[in-house]
Amino acid sequence: MGSLPLEALMPLDPETFAGESSTVVDFLADYYRNVNKYPVMANTEPGSIRKLLPEVAPEMGESMDRILDDVRRDILPGLTHWQSPSFFAYFPANASTAGFVGEMLSAGLNVVPFVWMASPVATELEQIVVDWMARLLGLPECFHFKGGGGGVLHGSTCEAVVCTLTAARDRALSKLGHAGILKLVVYASDQTHATFQKGASIVGIPPANFRILRTSADSGYGLTADTVQRAIEEDIARGLIPLYLCATVGTTGLGAIDRVRELGHVARRYGTWLHIDAAYAGSAAICPEFQGHLDGTELADSVSMNPHKWFLTNMDCCCLWVANPTTMTNALSTDPEYLKNVSPASKMTTDTIDYKDWQIALSRRFRAIKLWVVLRRYGAVGMRAHIRRHIRMAEWFERVVAADERFEVVVPRSFSLVCFRLRPRFMDDIAVEALNRELLAAVNASGRAFITHFVVDGKFVIRLAVGGAMTELRHVRGAWELVKEKADELLANCC
């Protein structure tokens, strides 16, 4: 305990490493045992941590025990606890023992595999695991390395979007010249994640050239081919060029599913890059009964999904596959002298790749070992059971909501996401919206669960996403009891 003299500091002493790492593991195990003791959503005032910590960094080092005591006292109470079994907000951010072990190996080995020579096996393991994932999801051969395509592990969908937009942009500008960027148009639905608007802006697409296409309840809020084709034809008539189309399988707000095959045919007709965003629901495609949602993927240029959402792989990890890697590497590659491989030419083959040319940054983490450990530890059978367990829980929640005449399921359940609202028959639409806002606030303020909302067709919708690694049916039942309890209180006060 107390301060450590500077001369005693050995940053990577193996014995210290073993002891302090064990202490952190014990700390985290205790945290998971007791995570239910904390309010799921943080209940702190802005700036609270600044009041607890000094204004300057410490001059002398401190013991790990003292640091962890401060984490327990000052940090944990101000967190929103994403690994709580009663966390039903946004989409899940899965953690698991295997994911943690993989993360420890990645952090502990701390290699930086930006070029093949920087860590050959790290590069090649990444190629293997993205091919494993492609096969599990049922992606066509064109996205496998042996089929001429290939994959890479990014940190997030945001990175994947910027990289594919850049590839699509440069492919178009190679024919048009750089001034042609003012003619390029990107298409997405009103359910598509805002990441695509941000990505389009980053790569220089004029904001006026981003088309947000309306969806409706008739198509389950999925984007239809007719809608896209009309928009493209109108743009072509204006002298614009359809650059990029996003199809989403499992949108963030409602879990809507775009019609991939239909959209793929439209994209092919006009030479438009088609990206399939399956960030959340892509995990479900390892189950044969859900692979039909990716029907038509062979018509796409790129596909992405996030194992860190629902695939028991700790943050961060996003799989991106491209059918023509050269298109992307041409847009992203650099070849300074100091990064050229120095191995004998006899060791280099056409299969050797440098992942620096598949991403935005130069440096990169050894994410492949994390996903590899998860796949090895749980196997396809275990992962399918994980996905199906959550879907069964969501099916139960949807049934009980539909059975209570005070509530309505706003859209049919999609995967493990249920969208619902309190809908008393005696209230008008304005009162219903206010009531549901109050209901959501009351549920979250209780600390017993955390859920979020969406707005569709002017309706304020409460969305409950089942997917926590420690979530059991009893926690979903508890969330429903909490929703009913708060609804009873609100209805009693307004009647």
TrEMBL record:
Its cofactor is pyridoxal 5'-phosphate. Belongs to the group II decarboxylase family. The keyword DNA-binding does not apply. SUPFAM superfamilies: PLP-dependent transferases. GO terms for molecular function: carboxy-lyase activity; pyridoxal phosphate binding. GO terms for cellular component: cytoplasm. It comes from the Eukaryota. The modification N6-(pyridoxal phosphate)lysine is found at K309. One of its GO terms (biological process) is carboxylic acid metabolic process. This is Tyrosine decarboxylase. It holds the Pfam family Pyridoxal_deC. Keywords: Decarboxylase, Lyase, Pyridoxal phosphate.
